Amino acid sequence: MLRLRQPAKLSNALGISQEQLNRAVAALKSNPSKKVYGFHYLNDPLAPIEKFERLNAHFVKNGVGDQFKTFVFSPTRFVTRVSGSMP
Length: 87
What we know:
- By secondary structure, the protein is of the alpha+beta class.
- It contains 3 helices and 3 strands; from the N terminus they run ααβαββ.
- It has helices at residues 8-11, 18-30, 50-61; strands at 36-41, 68-73, 78-82.
- The protein has a 3-stranded mixed beta sheet with strand order 1-2-3, covered by helices on one side.
- Helix 3 (50-61) links the parallel strand 1 and strand 2.
- It starts with 7 loop residues before the first helix and ends in a 5-residue tail after the last strand.
């Protein structure tokens, strides 16, 4: 498999601004029925899982971690991880 290593700065970069993250948190807090869904392919060299871990940590820190649902796709199976259960 092709493995493209990325520096920590890039592997953790979310591609969205802090202002956008803050607006997302505010929207989630204002309506607990809202959810953010994230999809990731297992071992995807172009989209490191660190981005999801960072996003999950941000939502948990701001009290809306239970509203972030992650889905990790594997070539052989489909795995679901719910906020807070990521290592």
